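Lines hold sequence, tokenised fold; shown next:
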Amino acid sequence: MPYLTITVERFPILGKFVIARGAKTEAVVVVATIEDKGFRGRGESVPYARYGETVESVLTQIASVRAQIEEGADRGRLQSLLPPGAARNALDCALWDLDAKRCGVAAYVLAGVMPPAPVTTAFTISAGSPAEMAEAAAKARERPLLKIKLAGEDDAARLAAVCAAAPGSTLIVDANEAWQQADLERYLEACAEVGVALVEQPLPAAKDAILAKIQHIVPICADESVHDRTGLEALRERYDAINVKLDKTGGLTEALALVNLAQSLGFELMIGCMVASSLAMAPALLLAGRARFVDLDGPLLLARDRPDGLTYKGSIVLPPTRELWG
């Protein structure tokens, strides 16, 4: 019978990671390991306070379904046992990994998708003063795609500073819900002036209806406004793209379904992540080939990754080895 182990692991961040709603210096992740008849599957997730999650709440959620998992509940059954979120993500990805190992077939084959190929990931520049962000951008100026964290006040100056420091990089920006409706069009104009390719979650999720009534002079991407397929169709007039993260969807199973629905509705895709180790990135790479933008730089932001982590060649991330996942 399957046996479930749950652990909490900490990875120090290289420097600090700063967004509009706060800063952190370490990534705290929950790892679910399911073993059965000599085979082992692992999944990693990040509890996120923005969605009401804590490490303790995620551990409690996983523990609440331990009996069903150890009785052999599969990925389909899991979808009804837990809601979307970090707890279900860790278990879902562990079950994908376990099934791949037991069957001797790669996870992408089980998922019915193309094999993952090397892809270019965005590299994140944390929010800070214009001077701080310019310094960070200058160090990353050889990277083709930069994701700029913005914070509201002084964002136009931040953008100008980053553009001057990394003139050859394509920019996407992420406001993490920090903009106000009164400033929205002004900030979008500032983004358009410097050629920003995508603006992610400019307004709070509960206050994004105005996005259906303004001109999108820069494509706008939903992050906090979309988790799984629920309510996706209602966002079609507000957003041009969605950011698919496994910690929001509750795992690869729902993420695959969300990607299919989103593309049928005409959304462009970003495949994103929380700050975490390579184990959290690996399942998302099965979706990367269908996305316009890939933002799976979590391990690049850490002081250390797992010993069996992904290989990054600059901003190119290679598919995972069997030892890591899938």
Notes: The first helix runs from residue 55 to 64. The domain at 3-105 is CATH 3.30.390.10 (Enolase-like; domain 1). The two ends are 21 Å apart (CA to CA). The CA atoms of residues 184 and 202 lie 8 Å apart.
